[in-house]
Amino acid sequence: MTELDHRVRGVDHVAFPTFDPAATVHFYRDVLGFPVVHSICAAGWGPEDHPDFIHFFFDIGNDDRIAFFYYFGAKPEVGGAQGVKGDVYARFGADVPEYFVRSRHLAIHVDEEADLLEYRRRLDASAWPVEMQIQHETIESIYTHDPNGYMFEITRAMRPVTPQEDLDANLTIDALLDVVGEPEPSFGKLLARKAELIVERAADWAPAR
After folding, report:
1. pTM above 0.70, yes or no
2. Which residues contact 68 (CB under 8 A, 6 or more apart)?
3. What is the C-alpha to C-alpha distance for residues 156 and 179, in angstroms, rounded to an integer?
């Protein structure tokens, strides 16, 4: 596969709808300390049935931003409020596993453990205390839900990711693409295919090493 040149420079912004802009501003600006850096007031935008809205942005560092849309007059039912799990954008039925609901989330990284603990202190003193603090693989994270029900994570690296782990990640993805292209993919088949790829490619790694 031809290697494509990498031209992007990170996230400009991620955007979500909100039905509670006051709580959203309080959470991100007043609790976490993310300053408001931009807003767009839009009246008469789009087709005739498009409501007026405000689009507002918070600085999350590194010139990246998290943004929200507040549509005047829009009701929570727009987001599928008939479900009992999820957030204002997507609601799920009671039978949907919690791990599936929580898999969609935003993670923001900090440099040091002290930074992570400071954000934990701020959250625990607010209406949105930390729900989980977990060390997994190379990172440690704290989690909560913001006022809109979005899963929100702050994470720190416990150590650098090695080139060998980058190589392993690419092997894993190549194996995954092969397995999901066949009937009845499974975790066991993924590991078996990955082992095959290691054997196939091992000869190419020795000269590079």
Report:
1. yes
2. 15, 16, 17, 18, 21, 24, 55, 56, 148
3. 32
